[in-house]
Amino acid sequence: xxxxxEIRSASVFVTEASRxxxxxxxxxxWQGSCTPDPVPIPKGGSPDELWEIFDKVVKAVPNxxxxxxxxxxxxxxxxxxxxxxxxxxxxxxxxQLHCLVYGAYEAxxxxxxxxxxxxxxxxxxxxxxxxxxxxxxxxxxxxxxYRLLENIQSRAHRNTQENPxxxxxxxxxxxxxxxxxxxxxxxxxxxxxxxxxxxxxKDDQLREEADRWAKPFSPLLQPLGRLIDELAFGxxxxxxxxxxxxxxxxxxxxxxxxxxxxxxxxxxxxxxxxGIEGSNLFDRNQRVPVEKKLGQLHxxxxxxxxxxxxxxxxxxxxxxxxxxxxxxxxxxNDIDHAGMSKEAKSAASLIKLVNELFQNIPPANKSEExxxxxxxYSIGVEQPIGADAPLPPLPDIPRGALVVIEGxxxxxxxxxxxxILHGSPAGAIAVFDPxxxxxxxxxxxxxxxxxxxxxxxxxxxxxxxA
Length: 466
Prior knowledge:
This protein is 48% helix and 11% strand. The chain is α/β, with parallel strands linked by helices. The chain has four domains: 11-119, no CATH class; 127-229; 239-358, no CATH class; 367-454, no CATH class. The strands form three sheets. It has a five-stranded mixed beta sheet with strand order 6-7-8-9-10, covered by helices on one side. A three-stranded mixed beta sheet has the order 3-4-5. A two-stranded parallel ribbon has the order 1-2. α1 links the parallel β1 and β2 (37-40).
């Protein structure tokens, strides 16, 4: 009655021997407002008996109730079983653990001697912390952590305790905000908030507050920081960061977010090829036309039709990126439309398809790949020529290739060559300078930029550094 004055029912778990020896005495000393019910249990000498005790404890506690567990007279392994039963009931039945108590009979003090009763509830709360951390680590849900930290700080301020915490609630809110952004697929928000949270978790004053007010949280600061660091992939305009975040989703089995972000990453890559950079990548007025054109390309692919040459950036789409785009829409639509189709694939099939997609994502910037598709266009002449002289025929130019104009020729001939290449499948154009190498003068590809100097030489010529 001291710990829960309005007790409505009480159950006492007793072996047959303890019931015969102690039950009458206990009834005489009982001061509660209700009569306790004896619940027979075995001694716990085997795994089967331990599970029987666990089952008896679970069945004795109704749903959604407030409970006091007293383990003072529990024997051998029964206290451990009781604590585990408490954790189980808290998790699946929604009980409220008012307290877990232990009467230390041998620790009597005072005159007359009184045995203290220790409240062990805080130790059981470790299980709540464990559950909260697992929710964050495996399901990216920060709400349970926020709730624990918010309760600690609010309780300290309510009780007007000295030097109450001021950072716990805020850091919990930041964790919850970041995980909300993760679960809703807010890639830009995640990339923006993750570095800030990672830095806050290293704060010495936060660690001091955790050591004093939230001891289970203190050892979590470092592993939580490492997990948040995994999300600090780069700036919100860094498309490589977007790709890595999509892969993060896939590894965490968050397939709807993974496929959605993968689709948007491809659109963003195409926007870059169309000359859209920085925050303009997220301008719907500029992004939508690119999306529509990609949709047309997908339709052409499905109908086995030739791809259009207009606008120019279409010709510079890397083949592997275009192949990836052609596979994404159907999978993404099947997932996002909740399988509301007669042709909807099974969950297992979709998971397999998504994982296969992520095994074949082309790199955003990879110099080896960039240099594997280079074509030299020689316009060199032996004798002076006039302005009306024809250009040599264009070589075969694969879609998206880097074309390097080279040869000893007047500047105006280079200008004409540059102009005619703008209507070709070339993804980037460079001019060769024997002192430097190839200098990029125009590009629809994110891996090349105007003014970039590349260590390239025409065939049968030594490199600039040789």
